[in-house]
Amino acid sequence: MIALHLDNVSVTYIAVPIFTGLSWEVHDDRCVGLVGPNGAGKSTLLRLMAGRLTSDSGYINRKSGLTVGYLRQEPDFAGGRTLWEEAMTASAELAGVEAKLDACEKRLGDPDVYGDEKKLAAVLADQEKLLAHYAELGGPAYEGKVRSVLAKLGFGDEASLSLPTDVLSGGQKKLLGLAKLLIVEPDLLLLDEPDNHLDLAGKTFLEELIRGYKGGVVIVSHDRYLLDVVADEIADLEDGRISVYPGNYSEFAFEKKTRLLRQQQMFQIQQREISRLEEAAKRLLIWGRTYDNPKLIIRGKAIQKRIERIDRIDKPVLERRRMGLDLEGWRGSNKVLEIRDLDKVFPASDGMDEKIVLAGLELLIWHGERVGLVGPNGAGKSVLFRLLLGQDAPTGGQIVIGPSVRTGHYAQEHETLDYNATLLDSVRRAAPLTESTAVALLTKFLFTYVQIRSKVSTLSGGERSRLQMALLTLTGANFLLLDEPTNNLDIAAAEVLEESLSEFEGTVFVISHDRYFLDRVVSRIVELDDGALTDYPGNYSDYQAAKS
């Protein structure tokens, strides 16, 4: 059944149309993967469907009684609450009923009420109705349901439940946002990049949640593996239009390419036919005027009208402009990295016990290897990278980097960027480039003239990722340490990165939870868990098979 229907809706942002005359049907019994390049309007479309935004024109028709749950890209919670207190606010309707019941309790304690038989009866009647509504909403079992959902998401212990929402990690905020939706179970889930910041265990849970969800789901994600597993159909938002393809992401990618090639063929055939008709009309009109023959003129004009009535096929864009990433690298030392008996312990503080993060790590990486580092959030992957970069000192053991190795680093949170600098200044500080050369480089990475002269702080997450990639090309590195490089990239940019890494003359050590990326790039997985490394030959699928 159709849960929601967009009918010729249009949205404009600061005089720039995001989409115009867009129509789309969303069903309540399937999962739709909403894809498209950064800036296409995917988040805007979700906000429109969630009722957080009003369209400039057109209509949004919702199924009678439809309930919609919306998870933003960056969940925002009220300050001053614990994780448990925030989770308990999931049902706004139930909270409203509880507030009214509290008001009833106060009124019952008022002498003006309990001393007046009529007033007392009226308040008791109100209380009875509220209690019935409370029971109907599942109020008596609500606290147990909240606790059960949180436990499934890894928040089962009291220490987790008492965490202030302000100190939660990005992954924990996403899980708490998901928990609030699962508690109320809306008919339609709208999820905006719910997998960002989740580790592999979190992504696996998300897959199981979506596959088992009874209602409809629309998910925006750049994780092609996730979309392959959960999507029943793909909605492709591009150039303000939406095209729906049955099947998962891999089926969509193949079908879209096939459809574009077919459209190109039909476009060329139509253009040849239009050219033939235009030439015929032109000849008839010339002959008619030359020989003063009205019949030929009438026939020529008839052909022109026929041309005007033709339903034109749009010329397809077979190859869209993509980020121009070129990671050259060079050979350098044969033994790139050797870790011997590495320990990292954080000292005790504020009455807490010391924390052992890494214990006796051993690792050897050779030139040309592509090694993926995986493990749960908090296992110490970023700590290991900080040790390799010399940003932190090990408690014990040795880190030996080959003498002819130059390291390049991509930071997950973009902390290597100066947010107060312009893009142009950032590039010219990284390498002695002329202004014109720096502008040409940034243009290759899809930055506009205005952006190039703007501050880094004005960029979106995906744009900051592209800037980091541009700066990475200037390092002359032959050993790349990449921390979640695909997190903010759209699918097209991630594919460019994959292709560039496959041609890179050097070595790659990458932290990633992007399983599709790991399958395409790495030939070896090392898993960090409980302070120790375990080696698995092959890509992510091989690692998964070995683990299972």
Task: Please give a quick description of this structure.
With 548 residues, the chain is of the alpha/beta class.
Draw up the topology in text.
Blueprint: E1 2-13, E2 16-27, E3 31-35, H1 42-49, E4 57-62, E5 68-71, H2 83-87, H3 92-108, H4 111-114, H5 117-136, H6 139-152, H7 158-161, H8 170-184, E6 188-192, H9 200-212, E7 216-220, H10 224-230, E8 233-238, E9 241-246, H11 249-290, H12 294-309, E10 335-346, E11 355-366, E12 370-374, H13 381-388, E13 396-401, E14 407-410, H14 423-430, H15 435-444, H16 449-452, H17 461-473, E15 479-483, H18 491-503, E16 507-511, H19 515-521, E17 524-529, E18 532-537, H20 540-547
Parallel strand pairs: 3-7, 3-8, 5-6, 6-7, 12-16, 12-17, 14-15, 15-16
Antiparallel strand pairs: 1-2, 1-4, 8-9, 10-11, 10-13, 17-18
Helix pairs in contact: 3-5, 6-8, 11-12, 14-15
- The overall strand count is 18
The share of residues in helices is 40-55%
Question: In percent, how much strand structure appears in the residues?
Answer: 15-25%
Strand order of the largest sheet: 5-6-7-3-8-9
Q: Which class do the helix and strand fractions yield? A: alpha/beta
CATH topology assignment of one domain: Rossmann fold
What low-confidence regions span 5 or more consecutive residues with pLDDT below 50?
none
Distance between the termini: 38 Å
Major sheet: size, sense and barrel closure? Answer: 6 strands, mixed
The count of helical stretches stands at 20
So what's the oligomer here? single chain
What does the overall shape look like? Answer: flat
* Highest-level CATH class of one domain: Alpha Beta
Assigned CATH superfamily of one domain? P-loop containing nucleotide triphosphate hydrolases
The assigned CATH architecture of one domain is 3-Layer(aba) Sandwich
